[in-house]
Structure formats: structure tokens, C-alpha cells
Amino acid sequence: xxxGIPKETTPNETRVPLIPASVERLVKKGVEVTIESGxxxxxxxxxxxxxxxGAKISPRAEVLKADMVLRLRKPPxxxxxxxxxxxxxxxxxxxxxxKELIDAFAQNxxxxxxxxxxxxxxxxxxxxxxxxxxxxAGYVTVLLAANHSSRIFPMMMTPAGTITPCRxxxxxxxxxxxxxxxxxxxLGARVEAFDTRPVVEEQVQSLGAKFVKIDLGETGQTKxxxxxxxxxxxxxxxxxxxxxxxxxxxxxxxxxxxxxxKAPIVLSKDMVAAMKPGSIIVDMAVETxxxxxxSKLDEVVDINGVKILGYGNLPGRVPAAxxxxxxxxxxxxxxxxxxxxxxDFTLDPNNDLIKGCLITHNGAIVxxxxxxxxxxx
Length: 377
Hints:
This protein is α/β, with parallel strands linked by helices and 377 residues long. Helices cover 32% and strands 18% of the residues.
């Protein structure tokens, strides 16, 4: 079986889909791997690091014709017809919002697997690329906030007086939020956190943070562990409950995202206006619409002395670690369905794990969630 790994072409993308150590694992299983020249340049990996472990360097057109193509970002629409018919394509695809791309996969008879649709089950944890990248994003967020803040995080007792600890408020305690809490605590900040799911209170407290309680009525999480969408009334109650905490905080980090949908606004302009000049807000959801009124993608917005950081691709700021984790996710996925006797990847549409992340197959859209979304429209 031939695996093709093309170089990422998305502007400012620094991560790579496979690192040499992962290629070596695949080659040892009898997989033939071909890569595009320059694949690992953004993380300091030369072509020789890949050929040394058994990879072959090929032109991009040949790489795309492999039996199975592994990449990080979704492909340009123009590249889908260049893929091998009846081949397999694996990457992040944003399938809820990329109608044309998904249609193109079906029309060109490509089995498209979406890494963000990997089910959140015990057996799939080692393949969960969304969580691995969100973990790093949470870490990076705190460093960015610290870099922009005029305050230091820890309390310091000095001959010149005592410096009080920085107050950090994290909104959302999913994978990214919990890592942000842990990182802020390691730096010595006083940390508070809120989440619509009461079940995460214990996790927040175990990291040394205070859990902010706001009575929103009935809330909860989906079967995959994502927070359920709030009603307009609940969102308003949430904003009112958080306003006082935000006003007292030096740094506010928002992480609220709804899978496949626009992110909810959790910080209104009034809440931002009530914060102290010099405060920092980091909007982690800026790429999906934003949690903060006034935030802008890849910009730092100053509103009356309050800085709103809207940086995209946060994991890409630590590309070596992000590439290592994503690469491991891909290889773990591949190995789970690798038939060592037949030396082939077994794509079983009836397998529960495959069923969750397989979007198109045999010329049709087969994913139930995507099909239901199309039917509604």
C-alpha cells in the first residue's frame, strides 16, 4: 500500500502531518511512504530525515495519487480530482461547513475521513486529534496572555513590597480550558473558571482553581462530552453571572465552541467595557465566529485599554509539539485498521469508529450527521 504525505499549503501553517519517527513506524509495517519535498521544513526536519527512515521523495502530483493521502488541513478544492479514484483521504475537513469540498469527494469517488469527527470513545482517545491540538492551544493561550499583560502571574514578596498574583478567569473547562487553567496555575496565578457543565467542577478544583457557579437551570453535555448549546435566556444569565468576575480579572480566556456551529458570544461589549484598563482577553474561538464582541481573527483589538487577542491556529505556535501529537494521532488511527497479513488498510464502513468519521464512500455521503444536516437545509 502506498501512503502519500503532501506538504501543507495553507498560508502560515507551521504544523506537519507526519514526523520522521511516525514514518519509520509505518515503513516497518511494510507500508510504502512517499512525501513531497520540504514536508518537514517548518519544524526543522530535512528531506534526509524522512528518506533515512524509508520514505521516498516524489513530486506533489504523484504524492496525491497514492492509495491513501494523509494531511493536516483540508485540501484545496482543485486538488480533489487529482486524488486516486477509490482512494482514501484523511485530514481535518470541517465537514459541516465545507459543502462543496464534501460534494467533490463524493463526486470523485474518494473515501474521505475527517479527523475532527473521530468519536470520543475510550478506544479512540489515542486518535483524538481535536483534543491533542486543543490541549496545546490551551497552553499557548496563557503564554500569549502573559506576554501581552503588564502584570506578572505569581505573587512575589520583595523588599520593595508584595506583588499580588495575577487573576485569571477561564471560561469553558474542556480540554483547552483545563490546560489553560493548569498552565496559569503553574505560573502562579489565582485562577477561577466557569463551565456550563457542572460535571467538570471537580476537574477544575483538582487543578487548584476555583469553580464559579452560575445557576443556568438545566444544562449538560452531549454523548461526546461537548457542552450543549444554551438558550438565549441561559446565555444572558451566564453573561450576567460572569460580568462581576470579568471586571475583577486581569486576564480572561474564552474557550466556548460548539462543534460544527458558530461559537456563542459569551463576552458582550458591555462586559468588555466594564473590565479594568490593562486587562487582557484571549478569544480562543475567534476562528469559528468568536466568543467576544469586537474580537477579530489574527488581530489584537484595543477597546478602552482592554486588549482582545484574536490569534488563529494556536497549536501552530508550537509546531514541533503539535506535529508530534497529530502525527501520533494519524499513525494510531492507521494502525488500528492495518491488516498485517494482507498488508492493507481495512476500511469497514460498518465499524463504529469508522462510521463516525467517514464522510464520503463509494461516491456518496455516508456520514449520518452530515446527511441529517443536508436534509434540514
